[in-house]
Fold each of these.
Amino acid sequence: MHAERSSKIVANWVFLGVAMLVIQVLLGGITRLTGSGLSITEWKPIMGAIPPLSETEWQQAFSKYQQIAQYKYLNHHFTLSDFKFIFFWEWFHRLWARTIGVVFLIPFIYFMMKRYIRRWMVMPLVILFILGGLQGLIGWIMVKSGLNDENLYVNHIRLAIHFVSAMVLIAYALVFGLMLSIPQENRVADASLKKNTIAITALLVIQLFYGAFMAGMKGAGVAPTWPDINGVMMPVQFFSGNIINDLFFNIINIHFIHRTLAYIIFVLIILWWLKARKYSYSPSFNKAKNLPLIFVFVQVVLGILSILNSPKIILGHFGIFEWFAQLHQLTGMLLLLSLISVIYLLCFKKNTV
């Protein structure tokens, strides 16, 4: 098969994987928002694909859930029917991950046999497979932090690591797909703009960490006001003398940092766009340069709406806050991926062929 056509087929396969990974992260968000993440207390990579099939098996699974703090102190009113609801979302989240593995492995073997995959493509694809496996392991380490008699939820730092590592996996797959589909002549030469884009992306990664902290600590509701934070612009005792606690465990501080980083990134992307819009000769860059501006605007608006609707949270109910929070997470992911795409388009290194 012609090299250009085979590259396009492989690129479409990789982009399908990117889409499936984005859905996987969104399913993780639904799992968290419905309080489902601790419903499955075991990690069985193979046999875990099969849910309980009999009433006895359901009772056994429910009995294991009843041993942890989340049931004892938060969901002790749950019936078996309630448990089946949260079990479904965690099971489906894990099943989708397994499906991604199948969608990766089977076409990989087929493409290797048909020689669609050239020698230089093999190592990036192996790395993708390894990153995917590690992501599953990180997810289980996160879940284990809540399977005890003390914690109602998973550790927020482990949740953040799980989320950001998923974004690393998605970003890596995206770049590989772009390598296969974007011609060299469609890329732009501007080292200064590239450095600015990398700096904004690094700041956004920090912001995503704090967004995950907010999610893990249920931080939206601690200050359901805007533009002030419970009547002030900055927490009164932001600095307590314990830097680790101030930056990583104090929920009102985390809320403030998350908001502040959002404003900074919003302004920086506007300034970045004003500089980037002068380039018009690259069709790919023409499309990509507007996406960060669109996504950051939508992201800020959804963040504000999530905060203002946080008093409407009802445990076990997926309402207006949960919808805004889920869309807020999605646009944050798309913002990061749009910046990663721009960085790639601003790189000059030629693809290996």
Amino acid sequence: MARRRIKRSAKSGLPPGTLVHIGERRAEESRITMLRYEGEHFEERIVPAHQVVRPPRDQGGVAWYHVAGLHDVAVLARLGEVFGLHPLILEDILNTEQRPKIDETEEYVFLVLKGFVSSEEPTGQLISEQISIVFGPNWVLSLQEREGNRFSTLRDRIASCQGRICSQGADYLAYALLDQLVDGYFTVLEQMRERIGEVEDAVLQRPVPATLHAIQQLKREGMFLRKSVWPLREVVSRLERLEEPLIRPATGIYLRDVYDHVIQVNDAIENDRDMLSAMLDIYLSSINNRMNEVMKVLTVIATIFMPMTFLAGVYGMNFKHFPEIEWVWGYPYLFWGLILVMGLSMFAYFKRRKWM
């Protein structure tokens, strides 16, 4: 059953900060998962919205609240009240068509990002969702549109206390979330490149209308991917330049690494766009060449039959005095002899000139 999609025009005329979910409802219900860790201590549980509590500033460890499903305005309003989020921040979270951005205050940093996966269908089309991240001194709030947790790998690392993440703060957890999203871009680009290779083979062998549809689909996905990733350069750059206490210098080093990865992703997207544009040109050229070949064959056939048609028209006239009519061998020798000689001569001439 098709899901109802709320358009941005639904907010027309409403005051700024009005909480209205914009986009498609992609989860049955909003679910909040709380993870808290400090060193080797790890705690995880599902919590209802009314039990969400902002940890005191002097409390050790990191509290990570992950929300799956953004359509429940009441849940978002409750989270905004607990963590002191500005109504405009909540408005951006609920608007799933928001471009990547960053906002910072003295209490928290707010990020809007896009996450991508390839569908399991044979076409492997691109599926996107909006990811919002808010983090403060010792807490992180992440929100995604779909059910399930795309950060399960990161959760397992925290649960098993692998790597340095257990000994770091909320800024490092925010970096880890951002890094996992960017790594997912490389996976999506690899899958897109495989599809591009398949379409390229089809273009070079025997393009059909379905090939053009595949090229256009890939171009649309590439444009959307670029639109979602290109602003991320400025987001990561500003995040890296933030001063303490929200971003520590030790975390800034890792953010610079993410920035380099974002540059690589953008370069790969541009290369894929150039390849698709070239493939479209090759497709159009191949179609034109095939059409020219067909027209050439038809022209040669018409040229060969043109003198034959002339002879048939001449001897088909209703005149009484045709000297050849009185000749016994006029029809088999004269008429068919001329037709065969002219046809074979023109065929041999076209062959010699390599027009066939």
Amino acid sequence: MLKASLLIDALKRELKARSITYADLAARIDMSEASVKRMFAQKNFTLQRLDEILQATEISLRDLALASNEEP
């Protein structure tokens, strides 16, 4: 079973690997940087928000799911 926290951790690693900062992501999804930081810190995402982030960063859900099963 895939845990949401593992998925979010994988997303953070993928953003870092692509040199996408929280400020960059915030601009791409029309949110404040503080809101993006809070969302990641609390690991509180709706599926709609996750989809929006994946589209904005061109990360596939499949790749993210695979990365969440890998060691950090």
